[in-house]
Amino acid sequence: VPQYARDSVAAGADVLVSLINGSAFENPLALEQHFQLSLLRAVENRRSFIRCAGTGVSAIVDPTGHIRDRLPTQTEGVLVGEVPLVEGRTIYSKIGYLFSPCCFWLSVAALLFALASRGRRWAYRGTEHLASDRSQQMN
């Protein structure tokens, strides 16, 4: 859940850890999908992520979302690895869900500005063209 990961990082977490029991899912693709979604928590918060799953995918993920090591679905085993630590917080971990609407509205504003600039340029070209036509008619 994105909010819990963000709250943990705000409280000072250096590493995100998730204990999962995916026994409710019969389809192995659903277990893989949940694992893929969990990678986003590492990237959003720039924290290493350790996922221990009773029936799903267990893995060690670095802060950029790169899977350092993993066990396949419904496989017993042990993962041992180094977990890089990153200090600081991302924009997403600071402002949360406001990040997406801010990006959207900034994009809309940039698009409107570009369209308005293009319209002014067309209007200027149109008046320049009219002036040259008038000078030709006078000669």
DSSP strand tally? 4
The structural class is: alpha+beta
Instruction: Quote the beta fraction.
Output: 15-25%
Radius of gyration, in angstroms, nearest whole number: 26 Å
What would you call the quaternary organization? single chain
Q: Return the average pLDDT rounded to an integer.
A: 82
Q: Give the count of helical stretches.
A: 4
Strand order of the largest sheet: 1-2-3-4
Residues in helices, as a percent range: 40-55%
Outline type: elongated
**Terminal Cα separation, in Å?**
75 Å
Q: Biggest β-sheet: count, sense, barrel?
A: 4 strands, mixed
Order of helices and strands: HEHEEEHH
Unreliable stretches (pLDDT < 50, length at least 5) are: none
Characteristic key phrases:
4 strands; alpha+beta; 139 residues
Would you give an account of this structure?
With 139 residues, the chain is α+β, with helices and mostly antiparallel strands. Helix content is 52%, strand content 15%. The chain has 4 helices and 4 strands. A 4-stranded mixed β-sheet has the order 1-2-3-4. The longest helix has 40 residues. The protein starts with a helix and ends with a helix. The model has no long low-confidence stretch (mean pLDDT 82).
